[in-house]
């Protein structure tokens, strides 16, 4: 319990007698009365002191006054403060301790106010107290009137000039250990160093100069820079400065803020929005140019040209009706009596306007005819160009296929397939999606067999071959099929290449002529393939650098048996008897 709490509970539970056993009774009066007394005493005893330095609140901390005008130290001591260091008046630790001739210690401020109060008790001090406490204060003053200026403890006669500083008690009190008064701080220090600690304590609380909220000193800089609702900020668009809590208001009116057109969703600054919607936006509603003649249609601006083309006759009819109405008005408004000079002038003016409008209609009619002709020519030209474009695309595809065919014939039985984007195929395999990839075609020579590879990633749930790479060879219909010997007889070497070292994963297989996979294909690609279902485990890809830059390299080498026999000289020419 702090000294302030202790003081309030003590005054609430016990009173003070006029005989001085427990001290003078004026210290037990309500705090508002004590503040009024202190103000009155200070103004009389020190007339030259500014009123701004007087005690104007009932706080017992007295942090705004000098040490000589403050009550005791309102802090929590560890261990608790001994009673010999407590002021009998304020019940707090002695501040600027003084001692009386009778041996009692008081805070200098407390005892001096006590003595001065008794000296001035007849000077109308009671009139400064509120009516709610005047009766209690009157009783206390009566007791002092009877006893004179006395020590509050033992009622010994006491003058202010009899007080002398108790430096020993002051040193002892300032050397006592106290707890930091800031909430959350567990620091302990001696009393004389408490102010220095408060200056740097991370838990000390101060007021934000902008929003007047209580924040810790250590967080004040961050608060004022990033958290304070009244911190100054600048608009990133117009560089105008305003307080943060008005950000939404500014964003709704900033002339350079980015906004979206409600019709076409185009991003542009707010100042340009009005002119954009009036002239540029293709989806903004626009009125027909013939609205003055009677057309009330509104449409998107990009549909305006189509509207003008489709409703040309209707617009001409509107203009004819308008001219007819002008003609009738001119006939009705013509000079029917001899004294209408003004009416005659108006009729001439209407007639001139009618002639001008008639000429305008003729010009527009000629322009419409010309535009219709141009549109028909453009439509015919567009159809012709579209047909040519389709033909060019078809020719380009045929050239690309021919180029691929020629490139495939240059392989001479050795083909390296680059499987790009392999990580995407692995993710599909992990999600149990089927992954089947066919390579481009290649030839074993010129002339030669046309082949392709098929790579398949087995799903995790596949029976017996889960998480394996399957690799197969397929025969295809080629340019030289009629010149070749069927079925295909060859030795085929399949390999997945290590792109860092020469540790390739390779398998060798011999063709089996009886299998349908090696017969002459009757379809563009033989549906039957020949190879390995468990060619390589997917886990083995991580052991070496088989995949580099998200690319897997697969190599196929085909050695025809017929070529090998020619190289070894096994095939012999016919003997002379064959010429018969």
What does the model show?
This protein has 580 residues and is of the alpha+beta class. The protein folds into three domains: 3-200, Zinc/RING finger domain, C3HC4 (zinc finger) (Herpes Virus-1, 2-Layer Sandwich), CATH 3.30.40; 288-334 and 344-407; 410-568, Apoptosis, Tumor Necrosis Factor Receptor Associated Protein 2, Chain A. It has helices spanning 3-13, 31-45, 108-119, 134-147, 167-174, 194-200, 217-227, 247-251, 270-280, 304-310, 312-332, 341-409, 422-430, 561-568, and strands spanning 97-99, 105-107, 164-165, 177-179, 188-190, 205-207, 214-216, 232-234, 241-243, 258-260, 267-269, 285-287, 298-300, 414-420, 435-438, 442-443, 450-457, 468-476, 490-496, 505-510, 530-537, 547-548, 551-560.
Overview features:
alpha+beta, Herpes Virus-1, Apoptosis, Tumor Necrosis Factor Receptor Associated Protein 2, Chain A, five-stranded antiparallel β-sheet, 14 helices, flat, disordered N terminus
How many distinct domains?
3
Distance between the termini: 135 Å
- Quaternary structure of the protein: single chain
The CATH superfamily label of the largest domain reads: Zinc/RING finger domain, C3HC4 (zinc finger)
Structural class, from secondary structure content?
alpha+beta
By DSSP (H or I, 4+ residues per run), the number of helices equals: 14
| Assigned CATH class of the largest domain | Alpha Beta
Instruction: Provide the residue-averaged pLDDT.
Output: 77
Please describe the biggest sheet, giving its number of strands, its sense, and whether it closes into a barrel.
5 strands, antiparallel
Query: Given the C-alpha coordinates, what overall shape results?
Result: flat
> Per CATH, which architecture of the largest domain?
2-Layer Sandwich
* Helix proportion range: 25-40%
Q: What portion of residues belong to β-strands?
A: 15-25%
What's the CATH topology label of the largest domain?
Herpes Virus-1
